[in-house]
Design goal:
Keywords: Membrane, Transmembrane, Transmembrane helix. The protein is mainly alpha-helical. Helices cover 75% and strands 0% of the residues. The chain folds into 2 domains: 193 residues, no CATH class; 52 residues. It has 13 helices and no strands. Helix 6 packs antiparallel against helix 7, helix 7 packs antiparallel against helix 9 and helix 12 crosses helix 13. The protein is elongated, with a radius of gyration of 26 Å. It starts with a helix and ends in a 6-residue tail after the last helix.
Length: 259
């Protein structure tokens, strides 16, 4: 139960997952699936995965993602087989989490047994002792109920994050560009953990290697201004290296060019 609480997903982890999916599939799309082999052999010591430490800190999320990428390096890119593999991971995780919830549900019956035992022992100790015992049990029941609600919330969120990871992986197999894969995964995330589209755009812009200082939203605005100004003046669309980078980013965001 401690591990369940310790490995609960956060908004930071879900954003890291989206960035990891984008970077992973961009690398595979550019270098080929076989090039992923160097990264999946030791993911906990690999710079690509360590760049998204929040994902590495969640083994229940990292393991199926790495296994999926490893199968890609073996040439297994059948979407149906991949779905079965990832769904098997999810089902195994669901069963393990349900077992934890069943164990947690035993807390209240055990408390009731203790209350009955205490009632027998304190029966001759007077009404004050009985009232104190009953109040203590009631408080424990409230805390136990809130604890179970929190555990159920963590379980639902973990399964939801796994669903998002599965969607991001299958989107890649279905031919979507990395940015769209990340967006498809984002749309499946639980609402409480889902970054906004603006958060994702800014995070992707911050992790861009070609234009590190310009966010995606800002880049779109600059590209539109650039194209409009060039068209009005009759000058070539691309005149400087920065302008070429902005135009390339625009094409990548629209799936016209590999990342």
């Amino acid at each position: 139960m401690r591990a369940l609480h310790r490995e609960a997903p956060t908004r930071e982890a879900t954003l890291a997952l989206l960035l990891c999916l984008n970077e992973l599939w961009a690398f595979a799309r550019d270098k080929g699936d076989l090039a992923l082999e160097a990264h999946v052999e030791a993911p906990l010591s690999d710079s690509l995965f360590l760049h998204h430490k929040a994902v590495c800190d969640l083994p229940w999320l990292l393991t199926p993602l790495v296994d999926f990428a490893r199968r890609l390096t073996l040439g297994s890119n059948n979407a149906k087989q991949a779905r079965r593999l990832l769904q098997a991971y999810r089902e195994t995780e669901r069963r393990a989490l349900e077992q934890v919830l069943r164990q947690a549900s035993l807390v209240w019956p055990l408390g009731l047994c203790l209350w009955l035992a205490g009632l027998a022992v304190l029966g001759e100790a007077g009404i004050t002792a009985l009232a104190w015992w009953a109040a203590s049990l009631a408080a424990a029941g409230v805390v136990s109920g809130l604890w179970r609600i929190r555990l159920r919330s963590i379980v639902d969120q973990r399964l939801g994050v796994l669903d998002a990871m599965i969607e991001g992986c299958l989107s890649y197999l279905n031919g979507y560009v990395p940015r769209v894969c990340a967006e498809n995964a984002r749309s499946v995330l639980p609402p409480a953990l889902r970054p906004s589209v603006f958060d994702l755009d800014e995070a992707l812009g911050a992790h861009s290697t070609s234009i590190p200082a310009v966010g995606t939203v800002a880049a779109r605005s600059k590209v539109l201004d650039l194209i409009g100004a060039k068209a009005d003046s009759g000058e070539p669309t691309v005149g400087t290296t920065e302008e070429a980078d902005l135009l390339a980013l625009w094409k990548r965001m629209n799936g016209e060019e590999k990342t």
